[in-house]
Write a structure and sequence with these properties.
Elements lengths: L6 E2 L12 E5 L10 E6 L1 E2 L12 E6 L1 E5 L5 E6 L3 E8 L2 E4 L7 H12 L2
Parallel strand pairs: 1-2
Antiparallel strand pairs: 2-6, 3-5, 4-7, 7-8, 8-9
Length: 117
Amino acid sequence: MQLLFDSSEEGHKSGLSLIKGTVKKFYNIDSPCIPNMGWRSIEFKKDELLFKDDFTRFYFVHSYYASCEQPSDIWITSKNGIEYAAAVKSENIFGVQFHPEKSHIYGKTLLKHLIHL
């Protein structure tokens, strides 16, 4: 997901700029866990047919988060000291911050839905 953005505090190279914004490091915030690691609850910001099933949490492992220029690009949020974009969607572009492959049945179902789009 982070590659979709304009730039990142993780390095000096530009991203793909498919979604406007910057990837920032979790620091100087009241964060209980860096890296953000483990099962986290999610909240949908957009209705989406992709998630027809009851999704409530995914597995995260990351030290950076995406800061979207356009709030409308934020699809799902989670919290780690601050609320951040856990997934983004802009037209036909999707990106997730969590790890579907580590998210048990939730990740498996997400990947199944993505394949059938």
